[in-house]
Each structure stands twice: as structure tokens, then as C-alpha cells.
Amino acid sequence: MIKTASLPDNILAVVKYKGTEPPFSGEYNDFGTSGTYLCRQCGLALFRSQTQFHSGCGWPSFDEEIKGVVKRKLDADGRRTEIVCFRCDAHLGHVFTGEGFNAKDTRHCVNALSLDFVSDVTVEDTEEAILAAGCFWGVEYYLKKLPGVLKTEVGYTGGHKDHPTYQDVCTGTTGQYEAIRVIYDSKKISYEALLRYFFEIHDPTQANGQGPDIGSQYGSAVFYYDDKQKQMALAVMKELETLGFRLATVLLPVTVFLAR
Fold first, then answer.
1. CATH superfamily of domain region 4-118
2. Spatial distance between the Cα atoms of 141 and 197, rounded to a whole number of angstroms
3. Residues 163, 209 contacting (CB under 8 angstroms)
4. pLDDT by residue (tens digit) across 82-112?
5. Separation between Cα atoms, residue 151 and residue 131, nearest integer Å
6. CA-CA distance, 11 to 18, in Å (whole number)?
7. pLDDT by residue (tens digit) across 125-173?
8. Whether 61 contacts 108, CB under 8 Å
9. Which residues are part of the catalytic machinery?
10. Which CATH superfamily is domain 127-259 in?
């Protein structure tokens, strides 16, 4: 799944336009948790945490990639070797050899903005969903419990204001929804199962809010990445309507997701 439509400008500047984040600015530069690093643009597993080491360079460093998932090519400057995701060509960073940092004498210098991290050491590929069902903290609490869900992130999407603050969204005038970005292992849970659970953990018949939280920012919405997700959401929603539920849930194409 190529997720370019949901990526904010700072991430697109790196993965699409081959920019470089400032050194020591990324959340994964000093990181000691066991798990797997994914391509931020398509969700493919790229690096395992046991291959990460601290190089002092200011960017996440790895001595080895997962076999077959990272491509190397000559950089535009004609001197360095660029590394990109094998599947989607997202720019990751550069690879260097001969520095003597480790036994493999290799350093994959990667932008943290090119990565997602999940606490799973065997996952090979992932999918993503963006959902809204009221206060994002409450929705996240339940979604994190679902087997197969690897990572959740709260944020805003669907609106017309760039880089809104929490206070902006609370006015109900930005068009933004409080939403959850869900990364999941499709070998362990399907998009259909995720959707069915989503409809169970909130009241999809309530308009203009959820419970005591009133306002368009608390509305029920499913944001689809592609036609496959759209058709599955339509099928599940139609089934609920056939059972007598008058859904207030809206179905919308994915737009930029701004993490809080």
C-alpha cells in the first residue's frame, strides 16, 4: 500500500523528494526497543532492531537490512550510494562502508522520517487504516488491544486547515476529524475484521459527535486508501444498515494525516 496521500510535507520532503532531516532530530536516533522498522511510505519491513547501532552521526544507523527489501543506487551527487525501499522507491538515506563502526563495516544511515517502528521482531509487511470515532484517545485505547494491530497514532485528518493545533480543531471550524492511524499485520487481522471491530467500539449512528463529545471533529468516519478499502467499508456499512442501523459514519478518501 502506497500511503503518499496521507503523508505530511516534512515526510514527503524526505521519502519523495530525497531530502534529509536535521541530524539528531529523529525519534529513532537513540532507540533501544526491540522490534522492526518499516517503510513509512508503504509499510514494508526494512530493518530489525538488533541490527541498529549508535554511530553518533545523528541519524538511525543499521549494519544490515532485511534481505531483499532495500535497493542501492548511485546518488545524484555521483559519490554516495543512496538506499531506497525496494517496493515503493521511498528515499531512506545512504549506505557507507569502510568506516570501521562494526564487524560488517557497513552503516545504513537512515532518516527517521522514512521509518515507522513496531514492537514485532518477525513482521514482514503491514497495511494501514485511518479511522475516526470520537475522542482519539478513547478509540486508540481499544484499537491497541486488538490482536494484529502493531501501532496506533492519534492525529487529525480530513480538514482544510494546514497544521492545526488542538485548540484549532476543538473549535469545530477546521473540518478536521480526531482520527487514528492504525498499522496492522494483514496476516493476523484483515481490514474487514478491523472495520467490524471499529463499528463495535463506538456508536456509528450518532451524528455530530460521540457520547458527550459534541462537534464535527468527533464524528464517525472511515478514510480509504484505495478502492479495495472503499468497497469493503461500503459492504460492512451496508450490512449494518440492512440490520436496521441508521449510520452517521461517512466514507472519505484519505487526506494528509497530521500526528498530534
1. Peptide methionine sulfoxide reductase. (2.170.150.20)
2. 13
3. no
4. 999 999 999 999 999 999 989 999 999 999 9
5. 13
6. 10
7. 999 999 999 999 999 999 999 999 999 999 999 998 888 888 988 888 8
8. yes
9. 109, 135
10. Peptide methionine sulphoxide reductase MsrA (3.30.1060.10)
